[in-house]
TrEMBL record:
Its main location: membrane. The lineage of its organism: Bacteria, Pseudomonadati, Pseudomonadota, Alphaproteobacteria, Rhodobacterales. GO terms for biological process: action potential. GO terms for molecular function: voltage-gated potassium channel activity. This is Ion transporter. It comes from Halovulum dunhuangense. It is a multi-pass membrane protein.
Length: 241
């Protein structure tokens, strides 16, 4: 019974698997559409009430889906801490923990349920590969994150030193300067806050050069790990064969 239920929920049961999967994906799309409609201004009260009731229904269905998947999982603890298990949990748990007006946050979190549609398009293995790769290089990513935070603080202190007197309203303190540091290190550069002194502009140029590395290093790490995993996969298949 559990094995059959597991096949149905995973969409591999020949009779009911695909039907259940399509139904859940349709529900996910409808849930997202419901959230989009609920943000419209001057929504009629009757429509708002209907959307709220639909919201409660969706939360109940997602909770039941999670309970069934947990019951049918061969390794329940493994499912709970797996990528898709966390996605399924976030599909309904925030709505239970964030009642009332805070349901908006729950709806936003539940948008990640759209990731389940990837399974229908048969590319979920790509997501699994990416999760495995990020797990493999997590130590390097943590070190890089710490270095980036350190650079962020240094950049904020530096620009505050150069621009505080010239622009006291924009660079009132080091924490206020952090927005500039984030925009500059990420090479986004919104333009809402920028240096006007010669020293500040030179310093900004240096930070921009460092920012290129901030973008390039994690990209290179992830790309190299993905390429390595891609090369290993055929070898595993040949070994199994």
């Amino acid at each position: 019974m559990r094995e059959r239920l597991h096949r149905i929920l995973d969409g591999i049961d020949p009779e009911w698997g695909r039907r259940y999967t399509l139904s859940m994906h349709a529900l996910i799309v409808l849930a997202v559409a419901s959230y989009v409609i609920s943000t419209l201004p001057d929504l009629p009260p009757a429509t708002g009430t209907a959307l709220y009731r639909f919201e409660l229904t969706v939360v109940g269905i997602f909770a039941a889906d999670y309970a069934l998947r947990l019951y049918a999982a061969p390794r329940r603890l493994g499912y709970v801490f797996s990528f898709w298990g966390i996605v399924d949990l976030l599909a309904f748990l925030p709505a239970l923990l964030l009642p009332g007006a805070e349901m908006v946050a729950a709806r936003i979190l539940r948008l990640i349920q759209l990731a389940r549609i990837l399974k229908l398009m048969r590319v979920a293995h790509a997501v699994d590969n990416l999760v495995e790769v990020l797990t493999e290089i997590r130590e390097q990513l943590v070190v890089f994150l710490v270095m980036t935070l350190f650079l962020l603080i240094l950049a904020s202190i530096g620009i505050y030193h150069f621009e505080h007197q010239a622009q006291p309203e924009l660079f009132r303190s080091v924490p206020h300067a952090m927005w500039w540091a984030v925009a500059t290190l990420s090479t986004v550069g919104y333009g809402d806050i920028y240096p006007v002194t010669a020293g500040g502009r030179i310093f900004t140029g240096l930070v921009l050069l460092i920012g290129l590395g901030v973008i390039a290093v994690p990209t290179a790490l992830i790309s190299a790990a993905l390429v390595s995993k891609t090369h290993k996969s055929p070898l595993k298949k040949e070994t199994k064969g």
